[in-house]
Design brief:
globular; Aspartate Aminotransferase, domain 2; 7-stranded mixed sheet; Aspartate Aminotransferase, domain 1; 13 strands; about 375 residues; alpha/beta; 4-stranded antiparallel sheet; about 15% strand
């Protein structure tokens, strides 16, 4: 299989470690290792002090899976397989799909969630948002219209990257029922789980609602621990998970022992990571709303209701990619253009998880004002 280049990741590779300011990161500032270790229980501290850097269990250590299990309603220990998130997605697509299968995926979307299926030889249809002025909206009725007799898999992502949109719990349940009624596998990317800005609208995990749903979660977004490279698949369909486990033997085989233990500590203390992240995200969204109010002629902004990102529409007189390249060259501010999502030329992703957003917006606003004739519509 020859995979098409991963456009978002290639763009980040170009600028993430050279640009001075990152305005489009989907993760939150990373926590230090000391912050994590200071939350460890006595038993976890002892495990850390005596940790040996040998091989680990393919499916993940039992203490790690016990920590993960507590955040689901129905999932058992043998219904969890731990790996890196990207690896989990890649493996799942390869064990459940064949050339000629039909897959439905949201758009815009993180490319690996549909590209692997495409390059396996599947036919992919995109569930696109309904057009409204005040919100992104993925209508379950539109999803129904995309289903065919060959539909093998539906891929969803809520909270959604890049729009920051999330369905209501009732609508989310409706999605799982659509998949169940049509006997279609449902892959639910839940990497931004528990980052709903209104906690009353928190979504359940799809794997707790439908026996043929496979859910993906991990430590990168919710916990601000992207460097651990930990994610996991959960499902009541043990046959699929067993295939994932066997396929993993050809890739990473097992996970990092240090990452597993640090991840265990973090997952056992989730509120210590989620609450500060949510506070930062909501504070930055408020700041960005004010920035938008002063610069509404430069871009349209739909306020996200979940996650750590939003997808703005630029009114600049050039494609988003061209503007983003000019911006990073002139100011050191990296902005991720919609071309990397294969979603037109007029949008860009904003990330709200970084502490230095006030400084970035201040510099960005000076640039817009100084170059108004190029970027303003009036």
């Amino acid at each position: 299989m020859h995979l098409k280049d991963f456009e978002v990741e290639r763009y980040f590779a170009k600028y993430e470690f050279t640009a001075q300011y990152l305005l489009s990161s989907s993760d939150c500032d990373g926590y230090s290792m000391n912050y994590v270790l200071n939350l460890a229980s006595d038993v976890e501290k002892e495990h850390w002090d005596t940790l040996k850097l040998g091989y680990t269990e393919t499916v993940g250590s039992e203490p790690l899976r016990q920590a993960i299990k507590q955040h689901y309603q129905t999932i058992a220990l043998d219904e969890i397989v731990v790996s890196s998130p990207g690896e989990a997605n890649f493996i799942l697509m390869n064990v459940v799909l064949n050339a000629g299968d039909h897959v439905i995926c949201m758009a815009p979307m993180y490319q690996s969630l549909y590209q692997v299926a495409k390059d396996i030889g599947c036919f992919v249809s995109f569930w696109k948002p309904a057009k409204t002025e005040n919100q992104w909206y993925y209508d379950p009725e539109d999803l129904k219209q995309l289903i065919t007799s060959k539909t093998k898999l539906i891929v969803i992502n809520f909270p959604h990257n890049p729009t920051g949109y999330s369905l209501t719990p009732a609508e989310f349940k409706q999605i799982t029922e659509i998949a169940q009624q049509n006997n279609i596998l449902l892959f639910s990317d839940e990497m931004y789980r528990f980052l709903h800005h209104d906690t009353d609208q928190q979504l359940p995990s799809a794997c707790d609602l439908y026996e043929n749903a496979i859910s993906l979660w991990g430590t990168a977004k919710t916990f601000g621990l992207a460097g651990l490279r930990l994610g996991w698949l959960t499902s009541k369909n043990k046959e699929i998970l067993k295939k994932v486990e066997h396929f993993k033997d050809y890739l990473s085989i097992c996970n990092s022992a240090t990452s597993e233990l640090l991840g265990t500590i973090a997952i056992n203390n989730m509120a210590k990571f989620v609450n500060p992240n949510l506070e930062k995200i909501k504070s930055n969204i408020l700041l960005f709303e004010q920035f938008h109010h002063r610069n509404a002629d430069f871009f349209d902004f739909i306020k996200p209701n979940s996650g750590s990102t939003a997808f703005i529409k630029l009114t600049a007189k050039e494609p988003a990619l061209q503007f983003a390249e000019r911006l990073v060259k002139d100011t050191g501010i990296m902005l991720l253009p919609s071309e990397t999502f294969e979603y037109g030329e007029s949008h860009a992703r904003i990330g709200f998880g970084r502490e230095n957003m006030p400084q970035i917006l201040e510099k960005f606003e000076v640039y817009i004002n100084n170059n108004g004739k190029h970027y303003r519509t009036v």
